Amino acid sequence: MQYSRPFLGLSLVVVLIAGFLGYGYFAKADTEAEGADKEETKQDLGKAMSSLDQTFGGKETAVPVKAGQVARGDLIQNVASQGRVHGYKNIELVNEIAGRLVQYAVRDGDQVKAGDIIAKIDERQYQLAFREAEANLIKAEAELLAEKVGSLPPGEDNNPSALAAAMAKLEKEYKSGLIAENDYSHEKLKIELQQGKVQNRRNAVIEARTVSVARVALDRAKLDLERCVVRAPFSGRVFEVQVTPGQYLSAGSVLCRLVNLDDLVVKAQVLESEMGSVRVGSKAVVAFTALPDLGALVGRVEAISPLVNSDEKTVEAIVSFKNRDGRVRPGMFSEVSIDAAVFQDRIMIPKTALLLRNKKHVVFKVNDESRADWIYVTIGAENNEFVEITKGELAEGDLVLVDNHFTMGHGALVRVVNKK
Fold first, then answer.
1. Out of 2.40.50.100, 3.40.30.10, 3.30.470.10, 3.65.10.10, which CATH number does the structure's domain 93-120+232-251 have?
2. Which of 144, 151, 257, 404 has its Cα between 20 and 30 A from that of 173?
């Protein structure tokens, strides 16, 4: 017996519906763990019924989709790299003079400011040395004053005419070769001293021998006294405390480590082949594997090394950033994305909107009737998130499908559920 094609099609539809209904009937006995499968079956049945409605002239059902917006702006290509956090202000505080530790003002984890007292050394012997140096300076200044007052007493030897004649005679004898150079210099100095022409230099010699030496000793004693108090050279956090009050310390003993967690950078290793597009001042984004909840931190490229690591074929870029909440620590691993090439004022779409059909790029644009129009486009520059559209019927503000559109046909009715 032969049946008409419409009858066969209708029979196939009836069988399909009966299959779904039968499945739904037996699913009533499923356990609670199978509830999700039951709900999925109902959804499949709903889609099948929707398809039947369209086939037999029923109401068309819109396909739920996600859409992104066509934008105009700067498309920025990034260079990805990895690096480690480095702290420039990370030092060991040491005691510069020997003595007994009489006060230690910090513990591990304490936050200190620049100038805060870290430790104090017994200063009594250094106070005595300072007072002794003060006394020696006063004594030297008194001796210098006595020398000045007692110099060049008036007398016949200081007669200007006689001294001038003696100098002229000395010069004549020296030029004639009658006296040696050493004797000439000696006699000339004696006459100049008598004339008072080198009085200032004479005083300077005396002062250097007495007063200047005393002043240096006083400055050294003062410096040693100041070193009895160890202060924080910069603001930071104290770690690795290694001393105890009452302990005798030799010069150079390590007290603790001081780290400034605000002044941190990432030393990122950029591939040599990508280094040409990185510039000092470029924006950079850093993320830390150990702190996924912190999110990405915005920074900038502060410096670029002039050297290439020949083994790894990389160049070091210094990226500064603000350590939000002080959670980033020196030595942490980081992922870095540096802005490289910038293409200004471009029309672009999310990369997920781009499809490839028959070796051509295709985009589905949502029209005013909520239908997806199939549009061929030509692409240009791209980055990890966006792609430039150089040719195609797209304008700023248009909506393009970014999800659930791989098998969609031209003109399909859609319902945007999440606009990006």
1. 2.40.50.100
2. 151
Where helices occur in 1-34 by DSSP H, the ranges are 5-26
| 79-88+261-341 under CATH 2.40.30.170, yes or no | yes
Q: For the ranges 175-179, 383-387, 389-393, which has the lowest average pLDDT?
A: 175-179
206 band by pLDDT with thresholds 50, 70 and 90: low
The answer to whether 96 and 252 are in contact (CB under 8 A) is yes
- Give yes or no on whether 64-76+345-419 and 79-88+261-341 have one common fold: no
Residue type, 84: R
Write phi, then psi, for 144 (nearest 5 degrees): -65, -40
Distance, CA of 39 to chain centre: 52
SS3 of 382, please?
A: strand
CB atoms within 10 A of CB 39: 11
Residues 6+ apart with CB under 8 A from 99: 121, 122, 123, 125, 126, 228, 248, 249
Q: Spell out where 148-292 has E strands.
A: 229-231, 236-239, 248-249, 253-259, 264-271, 283-288
CA dist., res. 40 & res. 254, Å (int): 69
> Which pLDDT value is given to residue 275?
85
Strand partners, 315: 270, 308
Other beta carbons within 10 Å of 275 = 19
Q: What is the pTM of this model?
A: 0.53
- DSSP string covering 113-170, please? -TT-EEEEE--HHHHHHHHHHHHHHHHHHHHHHHHHHHSS--SGGG-HHHHHHHHHHH
Domain boundaries, the chain: 5-59, 64-76+345-419, 79-88+261-341, 93-120+232-251, 128-223
Backbone φ, ψ for residue 380 (5° rounding): -125, -125
Q: Is 221 within 8 Å of 130 (Cβ atoms)? A: yes
* CB-based contact 393:380 (threshold 8 Å): no
Report which residue type is found at 298. Answer: V
Contact 361, 354 (CB under 8 A): yes
Beta bridge partners of 411: none
The top-level CATH class assigned to 64-76+345-419 is mainly beta
Q: Could you tell me which residues are beta bridge partners of residue 419?
A: 67
Which of the 8 DSSP states describes residue 27? G
pLDDT value, residue 177: 82
CB atoms within 10 A of CB 113: 10
